[in-house]
Amino acid sequence: MNRAINVVRGSVALLLTGSLLLAGCGPNNASPLPIPVARIPAEMNKAFAASKPETQQIIAKMLAALQSKDYPAAYQDGQYLSAAPGITKNQLTVTARAMLEINRLLKEASAQGDPGASAYIGYQKHNR
User: What is the distance between the alpha carbons of residues 77 and 9, in angstroms, rounded to a whole number?
Assistant: First the structure.
């Protein structure tokens, strides 16, 4: 009797786990695609058009760093922006997509010998 109950419990647990895993694998849960660097300013400004002046300042700082190819600073500003209070899901998604591209640019700069980019990547690895 106990063995039969354990088999039923195990089957129910397996079924529930499988259902939860399948529910998380839908097309709406795909990884976001990076925003091409040329489109980041327009996408960020559009997503944050109605945001607070403090948030607008962070975005301006991030975009200025991106334009000057200071990828470590642009990435840090993106991280700061991601944790800003009151950020919407859409704003967070746009920021994450921009940061994916900035991270790619950061790695590319490091591979081309940029000491600031290399130091920042080392810092990230050390502080994970």
Answer: 49
Query: Whose CA is closest to 4, among 68, 12, 26?
Result: 12
Read off the pLDDT of residues 22-47 as tens digits, 9 standing for 90 and up: 444 445 667 889 999 999 999 999 99
What SS3 state is found at 87? coil
Distances from the Cα of 1 to the Cα of 4, 7, 12, 55, 124, angstroms: 5, 10, 17, 63, 55
**Residue in 117, 124, 128 with CA at minimum distance from that of residue 74:** 117
Q: How far apart are CA 41 and CA 91, in angstroms?
A: 13
Q: Where are the alpha helices (DSSP H) in 1-114?
A: 2-23, 40-47, 53-67, 71-82, 89-111
* Torsions phi, psi for 69 (to 5 deg): 60, 30
What are the backbone dihedrals phi and psi of residue 36, each rounded to the nearest 5 degrees, phi first? -55, 145
